[in-house]
């Protein structure tokens, strides 16, 4: 690809990050150029974000219907996995799974709720009184 052909399409990551592309300069030598985006990559990212928004909405509905606890919603919303949340909270994976159920959530102490609230960047009140 020539330097003048470097894609500079708009994307969801515009203003947050840029890609490094290797291009040929006017002397035919390779150099690096920053690209703000590429239409194909942007479309793929948009599809991925649509899937994430759908998962968050399903999690919200699961909490409001009493199937899951607010911990589950924020876990999904923050794009966490069990290894990540276990690292932040210090809780075991099996305990976290239990805390994601309404029954397990009700048994949590204020201290454990505070750990989850800090992990998710919310207040204990927001965690306890989920509004969706």
Output the keywords.
single chain, 132 residues, mainly alpha, 434 Repressor (Amino-terminal Domain), 2 domains, two-stranded antiparallel ribbon, 7 helices
CATH topology (fold) name of the largest domain = 434 Repressor (Amino-terminal Domain)
Q: Kindly report the average pLDDT value.
A: 91
Give the CA-CA distance, first to last residue: 47 Å
Quickly count the helices.
7
The percent range for helix content is 40-55%
Question: What is the β-strand count?
Answer: 2
Q: What would you report as the Rg, rounded to the nearest angstrom?
A: 21 Å
The SSE string, one letter per element, is: EEHHHHHHH
- What characteristic shape results from the CA principal axes? elongated
Largest sheet: 2 strands, antiparallel
Total of domains: 2
CATH architecture of the largest domain: Orthogonal Bundle
Q: Determine the strand fraction and express it as a percent band.
A: 5-15%
User: So what's the CATH class of the largest domain?
Assistant: Mainly Alpha
Strand order of the largest sheet: 1-2
Q: State the low-pLDDT regions, or none.
A: none
Class inferred from helices and paired strands: mainly alpha
Structure characterization notes:
This protein has 2 domains: 3-37, no CATH class; 41-128, 434 Repressor (Amino-terminal Domain) (Orthogonal Bundle). 53% of the residues lie in helices and 9% in strands. The chain contains 7 helices and 2 strands, in the order ββααααααα. A two-stranded antiparallel sheet has the order 1-2. The mean pLDDT is 91.
């Amino acid at each position: 690809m020539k330097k003048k052909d470097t894609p500079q399409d708009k994307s969801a990551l515009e203003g947050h990050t840029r890609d490094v592309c290797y291009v040929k300069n006017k002397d035919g030598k390779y150099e690096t150029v920053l690209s703000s985006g590429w239409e194909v990559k942007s479309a793929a990212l948009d599809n991925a974000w649509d899937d994430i928004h759908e998962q968050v909405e399903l999690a919200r509905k699961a909490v409001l219907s009493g199937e899951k606890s607010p911990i589950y919603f924020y876990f999904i919303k923050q794009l966490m996995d069990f290894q990540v949340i276990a690292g932040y909270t210090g809780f075991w994976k099996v305990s976290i799974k239990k805390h994601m159920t309404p029954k397990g959530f009700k048994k949590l102490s204020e201290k454990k709720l505070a750990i989850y609230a800090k992990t998710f960047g919310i207040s204990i009140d927001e965690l306890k009184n989920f509004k969706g």
